[in-house]
Each structure stands twice: as C-alpha cells, then as structure tokens.
C-alpha cells in the first residue's frame, strides 16, 4: 500500500504476474445515467461510495484477524473456510465500492486512507477474542448493516447502482447468517470457559452494539443529495428500535459510521 499511497489506482491495478490469480471480470456492466444528475448528486455519490471503501477495508482486516485466531485455536476447518470466504467477499467489496465511486468522479483526486483499520487491540485469550469478533462484527454488525443497505437500495433509482447493491446485499446477508452459524459452531466446539471473559458480557455488548449501529445509521440518514445513486435516505426509512427494550450495559464500539437479501442458514455460504 505504501508505494501507492495517495493514489486510488491500487484498487484497480492488476499486475500481469498476479492477474491469473484474481477474478478480473467487471462487477457491473452498465453505467449510471448521469445526464440529468445535478453536481450535488454526483458529488454526494462520489464521496458516499468512496467512504464505503474504508468500511469494506475495515471488514477485511477484522476478518483477517478472526481467521488468525481461529487457526491458532484449531477451530473446525469449516469455520476457517467460512471466514476465508467472507474475507474474499470483503476484498471484492473494496473494489466494487471503488468502482462505483469512480463512476461519479476521479478517484485519484482523493486520498482514501485504508491503512491501520484494525480493530482496537486486546490482550484477551484468542477464543474469547474470536467469539467477540464473530458476535460484534458479524452477528450484530452485518445484520445492522443489512437493514441500512436495504433502505439505501430501495431508495436508489439508478439501475447500475441497484445492480451494485444487489451484489453487496447478497453477500452481506450471507455474512450475517454465517455469523450466527459460526457462533453456534464455536460454542459447540469448545468449553464455555474458553470464551471468557467475553462470554459473560456477550448479550449486553451485542445489545449495546445493535443500538449504537442503528443510531449511527439513522443519524447519517439526512435526506441530502444523491438519493438516486444510493447514498441518501431519510432517517424514517431505517426502522427505530423499540424504546422499551431492556437496559443495556455501557459499551463502546470502534466503528466510525456505517458498516446487507437472501437469508441462508448454512455454515458454508
Ligand atoms: Fe462488505
Ligand atoms: Fe460483510
């Protein structure tokens, strides 16, 4: 990444010696209809999709950390294969979001910093940390992301952007489902004590995270420009959580903003 810092061409470069190992097919064949778009709509779409590159890269690093922990504790191979698949999806999402952003502006005019997006470090045991990532990033994070992304997809009128959303939503729905199944497989594979200290606070943290994600997604839905291109909705388009829900423990979540439709229930999506 260092050599390319400041340039966004890194998202698209395919050096010849590596080309054989990656899928080079275009994600979305069509392009958006921009002839009637206002400058404000284009600009909002450009920055909105460029900012999603950062969120997707953060998912890459979170799942890379998870894969390392699962390997180190000798988790079932199917769990490693599943996380490996999710990691690949998130890498494709990085490139897809960069591609969509490039429809609306010159990506090389932006500096998108995708370095050091690791989750905050911890000294907790690997199995506990693995379960924490599964619950917070997949079971809760991906499910909440799915709700927000569906609202943006539904608000989008441009066919090319809807096609990009179809790809994202298909994958993110599988990710939320994979999270629930990963949690079940891990819990069945190790003694409860292996997941401490996270296991004791699991439900409180999950509820606090869910409320945090929902509040952030609703706060960011301000009805600005770019609705046709998938970057603007109104807060009421994301359902509020019931105010009568049980009280939650204090918990901070590292996400800085956003982080979804085919429910599947298999470990290997
Ligand atoms: Fe993603
Ligand atoms: Fe995801």
General description of the model:
- This protein is mainly alpha-helical.
- It has a single domain, classed as Ferritin.
- 55% of the residues lie in helices and 0% in strands.
- The chain is built from 6 helices and no strands.
- Helix 2 runs antiparallel to helix 3, helix 2 packs antiparallel against helix 4 and helix 3 runs antiparallel to helix 5.
- It is globular and about 60 Å long.
- One fe (ii) ion (FE2) binds next to helix 2 and helix 3.
CATH topology tier name: Ferritin
Query: What is the mean pLDDT?
Result: 88
What's the story with the biggest beta sheet? Answer: none
Order of helices and strands: HHHHHH
- Per DSSP E runs of 2 or more residues, the count of β-strands stands at 0
Describe the oligomeric state of these chains in a short phrase.
single chain
Termini gap: 30 Å
Brief overview, please?
With 269 residues, this protein is mainly alpha-helical. The chain has one domain: Ferritin (Up-down Bundle). It is built from six helices and no strands.
What characteristics describe this protein?
binds fe (ii) ion, single chain, globular, mainly alpha, disordered C terminus, Ferritin, 269 residues
Chart the SSEs and their pairings.
Elements: H1 16-19, H2 39-72, H3 77-104, H4 126-155, H5 159-189, H6 198-219
Helix pairs in contact: 2-3, 2-4, 3-5, 4-5, 4-6
